Amino acid sequence: MRTDIAPPIAAAVEKPHTAPGYLLQIDFPVPLRCSTRGNVMYGGHVWVAMSVKIEGITFNVAGAQKGALTFFDADSAIAGLLQNHGIADRKVTIHYFDADAIDHPVCVFTGTGNKVSGSKGNIVVAFANMTGRTSMLPRRFIAPEFGFNHIVPDGAIDKIGTTTHIWQVRR
Predict the structure, then answer these.
(1) Which of 30, 29, 20 has the alpha carbon at shortest distance from 94?
(2) For the chain, what is the radius of gyration of the CA atoms?
(3) Which residue from 64, 80, 101, 136 could staple onto 12, CB 3.0 to 4.6 Å apart?
(4) How far from chain centre, in Å, is Cα 159?
(5) Closest CA to 96 of 107, 112, 85
(6) How do beta strands 45-49 and 32-35 pair?
(7) What percent of the chain has pLDDT over 70?
(8) Threshold 0.70, pTM exceeds
(9) Which residues contact 170 (CB under 8 A, 6 or more apart)?
């Protein structure tokens, strides 16, 4: 997939000094939107300054991505949010931007939260991208070894009320 660079980004990158930053969104019931470059207005939302380190965003040949977020959580607000709402299967989106081109961020990751670790003050959230191999709810594949003892055959028809569903194998 080819993406053209917007003129404001090209101009910002050509400067002798750049001001890079990240916009991070985690889709909790009320989305957490934070910025690594202070409070930022983008897309009609305020992205709140937060001390977070984004690291280890990697790609493999199959296009799978993974990485980690380290929140410096002195007041335990992030720990409380994660404890109450969890991170598994929460959508995580990360955009890279330059302070001089905030209206043109570049998406560098879209995926889901995976697991949480850390200690008081530092919370590490691992994330992975959404591919066919990503664990989605119910976080396992439909197969007999996972307790599904009857798999509906391809082409089977279910009627629920006035709606007809035709079961098809995803290819």
Answers:
(1) 20
(2) 20
(3) 101
(4) 36
(5) 107
(6) parallel
(7) 75
(8) no
(9) none
> What burial class does residue 95 get, using C-beta atoms within 10 Å of its C-beta: 0-12 exposed, 13-18 middle, 19+ buried?
buried
Distance (Å, whole) CA 16 – CA 45: 30
Reported as type and span, the H/E element at residue 11 is helix 7-14
d(CA 16, CA 22): 20
The residues near 53 (Cβ < 8 Å, ≥ 6 apart) are 69, 70, 72
Is the pLDDT reported for residue 135 higher than 80?
no
Cβ contacts of 31 within 8 Å, gap of 6 or more: 25
Answer yes or no: are the C-beta atoms of 100 and 12 closer than 8 Å. Answer: yes
Supply φ then ψ for residue 21, to 5 degrees: -160, 175
User: E strands within the chain?
Assistant: 20-26, 32-35, 40-42, 45-49, 52-59, 65-72, 91-98, 106-119, 122-129, 157-160, 163-166
pLDDT tens, residue by residue, 101-121 = 788 888 888 888 888 888 778
Tell me which amino acid residue 6 is: A
Q: Which two tokens stand for residue 157?
A: 């028809």
